[in-house]
Amino acid sequence: LIFSVEGGRPVIPFYVAERVCTVKDLGGESQVQACEVDYDQLKENGAECRLWPSPRVDLSSVEPVFRKHITALEWYSCLPQEKTFNVAGRKFTEKVCRCCCFPFQPNPVTYQCEHIPGAPPAPGMEFLRKELGN
Questions:
Q1: Which InterPro entries match (predicted)?
Q2: Which residues contact 39 (CB under 8 A, 6 or more apart)?
Q3: Among candidates 15, 32, 14, which has minimal Cα distance to 23?
Q4: Residues of the domain holding 124
Q5: How many angstroms separate the CA atoms of 55 and 44, rounded?
Q6: How many domains does the chain have?
C-alpha cells in the first residue's frame, strides 16, 4: 500500500506523511531506539505485539472500502523482548514489545530501528545517517 514517486519519496495513499526526526529535532533524544510498548495491552489486539489494527480504534464512520485498506496498513513492526530487573536483590522479568514505524523494523538483538531492505526511504532519513550507523 505504499509506493514511491519520482525522486524516491514514499507515499501512503491516505495522504499521511511523516518526516524522520533527528536527535537535534528531539532535544537530544534519539528516534533510532525501538519504542517500548505494554506487552499485555498489545496482546488484546489479537496477537503477540500486534499494534495495528486495534479494536480500540473506532473506524465505523469510515466507508468499508477504505476501512479494509486502513486495517491492512503495516504502520508498525514490533518484537517481544524479555527484560530483567533487580530490585532489592530480587530478580524480576517483564515482557515488553519493541516497535518501530514503517519503513523501519526493530533489530532482534539491539532493538534499534533499522531500515527494512527494499522499503522506500523515509522522508528525512538522510539526516539520520550517523544515528543509523550508515
A1: T19C3.2-like
A2: 48, 49, 80, 94, 95, 96, 97
A3: 32
A4: 3-132
A5: 9
A6: 1
Beta bridge partners of 97: 37, 80
Residue 1's identity, in one-letter code, is: L
User: Could you read off the pLDDT of 69-126 as tens digits, one per residue?
Assistant: 888 888 888 999 999 989 899 999 999 999 988 888 999 999 998 888 988 887 777 7
H helix or E strand, kind and range, residue 68: helix 64-72
pTM of the model: 0.71
Identity of the amino acid at 44: E
Cβ(76)–Cβ(18) below 8 Å = no
CA 3 to centroid of chain Cα atoms = 18
Nearest CA to 132 out of 118, 116, 119 is that of: 116
